[in-house]
Each structure stands twice: as structure tokens, then as C-alpha cells.
Predict the 3D structure of the following.
Amino acid sequence: MGEYVTNKKIDLKLVLDFVFIAIGAMVAAFAIEEFLVPCTILDGGVVGISIMVNNLTGFPLSVLTIILNVPFLIIGASKIGKLFIVKSAYAMLIFSVALEIFAPMANATKEYLLAVCFGGVILGIGVGFVIKFGGCLDGTETVAILLNKKFNLPVGQTVLVFNIIIYMTAGFVFDFDRAMYSLLTYFITSKVLDIVESGVNQTKAAMIITDDSKYISEQIYKRLGRTVTIMEGEGLVSGKKTVLYCVITRFEISELKEIIKTVNSSSFITISDVTEIIGTHMKKSGELKKTEPVSDDEEAGSQD
């Protein structure tokens, strides 16, 4: 009976995830079509490229976002958590449909400053909802996550580099005023996104106190590509426990929660911001080590 109730709660949570992802995707589409597109202000990533192509060719923006995002989803399908890919594909589909719905409507404004400020804030809210509940709207984020896994490149900085290249291209294609407006919109969107997603940093530290350390650490390694530091702990009431510590990106928080939910026994997890990392971390290489609590004479304070 208890397992049935737990599974029911997980199913309800998953349904709510998809509901809020849809809301976020529609809010983001509203910001794009009603504020940014009328003023030829670009969003970052695939959407920004789609807006440029739409302005140059007249090809529907809704179709372009799907066509350009599909290759990134295919690339990430086998290397990133399946649930993340499913949620992202769902978000992109809702986003594309919403763009088509909002396109014929009257534009909210053609004043550039209003479009930058209000468009950036509304877009940040929409994208923040999508990320908070486990998806993403842009294929470049998928590439950034893959580069992070392989080369340990920061996700946020990688996405920023992609977007700067896109904005520089927009400066040559249109004019540099548009590029600067677009860059300003990106910074506003990023700040609002961080507030909505409840974190100002790309990198997070997760500490998991559990009786199922072997299963959880193996799943983190398999599904997220992250190594885990394993420590021995003891609860005041619950007795001996194993403490797992790992560093992840904010895009992987939802997948980590899904891993924890699959464990029947009680597990306790905290997620905190990481302001700075010194040394190597989060690398997936070699064979998976046997996951047992470290002894007193073993080092327990560093990542594998």
C-alpha cells in the first residue's frame, strides 16, 4: 500500500512537471512573439538563429525552432538523461505551437526599450519555469551540457559564448544596435531565470544522506556522468548512514531528484550553491568503483 501511494505521488509530480513546463513554454513564446520579434531583438541560441532566418526568409518561426532543435535532441538522446530529453522535446513542441498561436496577435509594443525590459523579464519567467521543472527550450543548452560532461566546460559560460557569436552575427546581418539590444535582453532574461529557478549559480552541490548509497551513486554515475564522494555518517536517531556528495549543474537537479524518488527507503537530500571550484571534479572516466563508505584513514573530502 505504501509503495502504491509513493508511486501515485511520483506520477502526480511528473504530471505537474509537464503542466508547468507547458505554462513556461507558452509564456516564453508570448515574450518572443509579442515583444522581441516586432523589434527584431534576438533571443539566444537556436531561437535567436530562428528569428534571424525568419526575418531574412519569412519562413515561419514556429517551424524553424523545431527543425533546428531536432538535431540537438538527437545528439543528446543517448548521452543525457532520457527524462530530460523527453521534457525538453515536449517543451520545444509546446513552444513552437504557442509561437504559431501568438504570431497573428497584435504586438505588445514596438518601443525598443520596453521590448528589451518587459520581453526579457517575461522570457526569463517562462524559461525559468521550463528549467525548474526539468526541461529546456534551446538545443544549445544540450550541447553545453555534453561539453561540460566531456571537457568540464562550465554550462553557463558555454551558452554565453554561443550567444555572443549569434549576437555578433546579428550585428552584421541587421545592425549593431539590434545586437546590443539583444545582448541586454539576454542578461535581463538570465537574471530573471536565475530568480525563478531559485539559484544564481550554474553549479550546485548535492549532499544525499541515505541507506541506498550503492544504487544511488551508480545511478548518478550512469545517468548524470558524475562521480560521487562517499562518506560515513551517523544520525542522532536513525543511526549509521552513508553520505554522498557530488557537484552537478542546475540542469541536472531534476534528474537527480528522479533518481532519489526511485529509492523505496528514506533518503535526505540538500542542494546548495557553489560559488567556486578549485581542482578537477565531475569527470566520468574508467570503471565504476565499488561504492562503500570510506574508512577513517581514507580521504573523504575530494571528488574522484
